[in-house]
Write a structure and sequence with these properties.
Blueprint (H helix, E strand, L loop, with lengths): L2 H8 L16 E5 L2 E4 L4 E4 L2 H4 L8 H11 L13 H13 L6 E5 L2 H18 L7 E5 L8 H6 L16 E4 L11 H19 L3 E6 L3 E2 L5 E2 L2 H14 L2 E5 L13 H5 L5 E4 L11 E5 L1 H5 L20 H14 L2 H24 L3 E7 L2 E6 L11 H11 L2 E2 L6 E4 L7 H18 L1
Bound molecules: pyridoxal-5'-phosphate.
Length: 436
């Protein structure tokens, strides 16, 4: 069986221009931070395989939890029925999240968790007798997934040209992206908050919610903001009665150094979206979590007030079992120590990197996530020509690093060793010296 010829005849790959893309790499197995190709090469995964892998590939404890659950209950309809893995996982998430976030709606992936949050926000106001509150606020550069509601909220990412006219209107605020040594951060934050004030002056009574990726915008280019900005933002929104949605699909489960970005930012949102790392990167599952005030607005008054939304695989028991096993690992002191060591490891290496390479600018770091920009981004944006060149350069050296256009970033699984981190930084320095 020739994987690549079957693939090239029948598979349509995501986010890929198939006419020009190199053939995909067939992966046979994974272990820890490494992936092994069908032809026997090792690749160190420095991006957690699209930001999902938390503790490592084929992590034995999670694999065992899934196998055990599969032999007991693989799936059951989640309307009229419940099961232990879902009940335990929901209670566990409520215990880890900031006060008040206690009611969990399960779905399948990041995009659906965002759809659920947006629909809950709009129907909350509808049920409270304020159906005119339906406008959504979001940020320039924000990304929230590829379904229609998520595309609308993520219009600032610039990915959705063919669908533009079909997306509902969203108020877009400038995002105060900052980095180490940025002297203009206060000015940028003030401009963002002024834009919010101007919006609220005109649209407050029609605004349902704001959605933001707290601390780090992922697909928009690992653009980071300060906790204090999120605090000021949330205070204004609270005063205006606008719901705050934190899309922590990427930032959740330790990536930012804290268990959730909201804890690091010191802001308790009204709704939070979780997915990528939820199952440790093993299975698709997501959760949208809210407080009692939102949940209660859906109670009583017949089915019309209920949330008429669900997915075939809502709260799949295998996914819930994987998530419980992943949380066990996340709560071990060794994992907290690894996360802290990764942040420290990034910190010294990143500073040395930008000092030695003028081609790398705007260094930034948030927990286990580190990023720099290629100075000659030129046309910039996701389609910048340097992106594919860099990707190839790293692959040839056995490293899975996949720039977002001119943005080079590392977002590794927590099990990455110091040695593997060294290899990544050395390769980036070498790339800056040879490709610029
Ligand atoms: C990846 C991502 C999504 C979409 O998640 P999918 O699982 O790809 O649907 C939504 N929001 C953020 C912040 C993401 O990084």
């Amino acid at each position: 069986m020739d994987i690549l010829s079957l693939d090239s005849s029948h598979i349509w790959h995501p986010f890929t221009q198939a006419a020009t893309a190199a053939p995909p790499i067939a992966i046979r197995s994974g272990l820890g931070a490494s992936l092994f190709t069908a032809d026997g090469r090792e690749l160190v995964d420095l991006i957690s395989s699209w930001w999902v892998t938390l503790h490592g590939h084929a992590e034995p404890a999670i694999a065992a939890a899934i196998a055990q659950q599969a032999q007991c209950l693989e799936q059951v309809i989640f309307a009229d029925f419940t099961h232990e893995p879902a009940a335990r996982l929901a209670a566990r998430l409520a215990g880890l999240l900031p006060g008040g976030l206690e009611r969990v709606f399960f779905s399948d992936d990041g995009s659906t968790s965002v759809e659920v949050a947006l629909k809950l926000a709009v129907q909350y106001w509808h049920n409270r007798g304020q159906p005119e509150r339906r406008k959504i606020l979001a940020f320039e550069g924000g990304y929230h997934g590829d379904t229609f509601g998520a595309m609308a909220a993520g219009q600032g990412s610039g990915f959705y040209q063919p669908f533009r006219t079909m997306l509902f209107e969203v108020g877009l605020l400038p995002y105060p992206a900052t980095w180490a040594g940025d002297l203009d951060v206060e000015t940028k934050e003030a401009a963002s908050l002024a834009a919010l004030d101007a919006w609220l002056d005109r649209h407050r009574p029609e605004t349902a919610a704001l959605i933001v990726e707290p601390l780090v915008q992922g697909a928009g280019g690992m653009r980071m903001c300060r906790p204090v900005f999120l605090q000021r933002l949330a205070a204004r929104l609270r005063q205006a009665g606008v719901l705050v949605i934190f899309d922590e699909v990427m930032t959740g489960f330790g990536r930012t150094g804290a268990r959730f970005a909201c804890l690091k930012a010191g802001v308790a949102p009204d709704l939070i979206c979780l997915s990528k790392g939820l199952t440790g990167g093993f299975l698709p599952l997501s959760a949208t979590v809210c407080g009692a005030e939102i949940y209660d607005a859906f109670l009583g008054g017949g089915f019309e007030r209920a949330f008429a939304h669900g997915h075939s695989f809502t709260a799949n028991p295998l996914g819930c079992a994987a998530a419980l096993a992943s949380l066990d690992l996340l709560e071990r002191p060794e994992t907290a120590a690894r996360i802290a060591a990764l942040e420290a490891g990034h910190s010294t290496r990143l500073a040395a990197l930008v000092e030695r390479s003028q081609h790398l600018v705007r260094p930034r770091l948030c927990g286990t996530i580190a990023a720099v920009d290629w100075a000659e981004g030129g046309e910039a944006g996701y389609t910048a020509a340097i992106g594919p060149k860099l990707k190839r350069f790293f692959l040839e050296r056995g490293l899975l690093i996949r720039p977002l256009g001119p943005v080079l970033y590392l977002l590794p699984p927590f099990c990455l060793s110091e040695d593997q981190l060294d290899r990544a930084y050395q390769a980036i320095e070498e790339a800056a010296a040879t490709l610029s």
